[in-house]
Amino acid sequence: MTGEETGFHPYRGNIKPFISALIESGEVSPTGRFLDLGAGDGKIVVDAGSLGLNSYGIEINPNLAQQWEENIRSGREHGKTPDNSRCQVVLGSYYPKEYIFLREQGRTIAPRYEDGLFYRSYGSETVCCDLGDERDRVFHPVSSDQDPFKALGFHIEDVDLFFNYSWGIELPSVLEMFSIFGRRDSVLLNNSAGYPVEHKKMLVEMGLVMEPILFKGRQLTSTFWENSDSVWRYRKRL
Question: 188: which strand partners?
C-alpha cells in the first residue's frame, strides 16, 4: 500500500543533520538508543541506524508493516546501516498504559492545550486555528493491548533520543509523555504541523525547554512556522 492508501503522511525532511549535531556535541552517544514515536514506513529508523545508533520505532498502523520491513531490509542489503547497529520497528501505540490511565483520571496537562488554538503554516502564511477536526479525525491517544516496549526489549526510560513527527494536535500529549517518562538526560527531537498558541506556557507547566539545534556554529532550526522541515530539541528543565 502507498502512503495515500494508508492515510500515512511521512516526515520528508532530512533528520540526519539534527542527529549528527547531537552526536558531535556529545549530547547523544554515537551508539545510543534511538526511538521513532510513530515510525511509519521505517525510513527515519533506517536513517538513524545509518549513523550508528541502535534504532527502533513504534507504529500503530499495521498496513505499514510491509513498508518498514522492506526499508529496513533494503538498508541492510545496501550497506546503509552498520552491522553492529540495531534497526527494528514493532506494531503498537507509543503511549504507555500508565499515561493513558493518567489522562482518563484527569491528571494530565495536555488536554487543556489540545482544546486551544494552534499556529499552523499554510505555504507562506501562518494562521491561528482550531484543530478540532483533526482531534476527531486523527487524534485518539490509546495504549496497546500488547506492550511494544516489551517487544523491543527495553523500557521507555532506556531511550537516549526520541523523534516524533506530530500532526500538531497530538504535540501536547507527546511532550507530556516525554516529560513524565523520559530520562532526565534524554532528548526529544520533534517536527510538528502546528503549535499551541500557549506553547511557551505549556512547556513551563511540563518542565520542558525547547531549543534550536546548532551544528558547527550554524543554527539548523528556524522559527517553528517558517520551515516545515525544522526539527526542535526538547529536554527537561534542569
Answer: 162, 234
Convert the pLDDT of each residue in 162-189 to its tens digit. 999 987 788 999 999 999 999 999 999 9
Output the CA–CA distances (angstroms, integers) from residue 162 to 36, 100, 109, in the order listed. Answer: 6, 19, 20
pLDDT of residue 193: 81
Q: Which CATH superfamily hosts domain 3-236? A: Vaccinia Virus protein VP39 (3.40.50.150)
Rounded-to-integer distance, Cα 176 and Cα 118, Å: 17
Instruction: Give the other-Cβ count within 10 Å of 115's Cβ.
Output: 14
Asked if residue 116 lies in contact with residue 128, where contact means CB atoms within 8 angstroms, the answer is no
Closest CA to 124 of 16, 18, 15, 225: 225
Each domain of the chain, given as residue ranges in start order, spans 3-236
How far is the first Cα of the chain from the last one, in angstroms, to the nearest whole number?
A: 44
Please state, in angstroms and as integers, the Cα–Cα distance from residue 87 to each residue in 36, 53, 204, following that order: 11, 9, 34
DSSP symbol at 85: S
Mean pLDDT across the chain: 87
Cell of 146: 500488547
Calculate the CA 68 to chain-centre distance. 16
CA 237 vs. chain centroid, Å, equals: 19
Rounded CA separation 115/44 (Å)? 30
